[in-house]
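Q: Got a minute? One more chain.
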Amino acid sequence: MAVDLDPANVLQWIKENRVYHGFTGTLDTPEALTATSLVRQSPTFYIRVPAGVVIVPITSIMIPEATGAAVCQILVSACNNDIGTSAHTALTPVNVNTRYATVGSKVLAYGTEAGNTGTAPTGVTDLWRHYGQADFDAITGAPTPPFIYAPFAGQGAPALIGSSSNFNCYMVYCAVGTSSTWFTLHTWAEFTYEEVY
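A: Always. Here it is, folded:
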């Protein structure tokens, strides 16, 4: 029987041990990014969704810390193939329901972008984009604003990512025209292919 994918059920998904979290940067140490422009094979953070699993992205939050006075671009995308693991470091997703904090995720998540993943994305769909020219981390008189992909709050398009037969990917890119550092936070819900379809 198919699960109810109504986004109003996010708290129920959390109760059912379905929602996971991953991030880049730790405490007061942001992630150093090498990308100075958007490159499909160099996401800042991405999730490899294996065959038989489907994820629903809930939020991705991107927080610049040192961007310089350069164009800032952020892109959230999905693709229908496996983009590989080169030049990235695996991280461990954690269940947002503390009762299930030790229950492992069904997907593979990566951060610490240091170049090309190895395989070009195919069947790409762009879900959300930001473009700005301000030096965001130098804004005075207010906190540095985060950038938020939140499809169920009207910020970007919702998506189902996964298939019955091969890896699919969810990808988040942060790039400015010079070296930069960022924190990123991501949550998603996990389902089996049979539960969705």
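A: The longest strand covers residues 53-66.
Q: Perfect, thanks.
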